């Protein structure tokens, strides 16, 4: 589901593994590409969280914290700023 929050195009996803919602701004912190067509891997069952892959340069972001997990600095701590994430409140108990 997509929405605009605080003037930013954003989206929300449901993780069946945790039963939790995840929400983040759609603009990639690297170069602003829309993440909506990127890949999302739900690896919660293996303890690796939910990973978002940008469709432009394949940088990887933790969907919960927004931290960049991999970028082209390979082997160095990622220099890319974190993805903007939002807390989600499920008011319907789903
Ligand atoms: S714009 Fe997303 S990784 Fe470059």
TrEMBL record:
<keyword id="KW-0001">2Fe-2S</keyword>
<dbReference type="GO" id="GO:0046872">
    <property type="term" value="F:metal ion binding"/>
</dbReference>
<dbReference type="InterPro" id="IPR017941">
    <property type="entry name" value="Rieske_2Fe-2S"/>
</dbReference>
<keyword id="KW-0479">Metal-binding</keyword>
<keyword id="KW-0408">Iron</keyword>
<protein>
    <recommendedName>
        <fullName>Rieske domain-containing protein</fullName>
    </recommendedName>
</protein>
<dbReference type="Pfam" id="PF00355">
    <property type="entry name" value="Rieske"/>
</dbReference>
<dbReference type="GO" id="GO:0051537">
    <property type="term" value="F:2 iron, 2 sulfur cluster binding"/>
</dbReference>
<dbReference type="InterPro" id="IPR036922">
    <property type="entry name" value="Rieske_2Fe-2S_sf"/>
</dbReference>
<keyword id="KW-0411">Iron-sulfur</keyword>
<feature type="domain" description="Rieske">
    <location>
        <begin position="1"/>
        <end position="94"/>
    </location>
</feature>
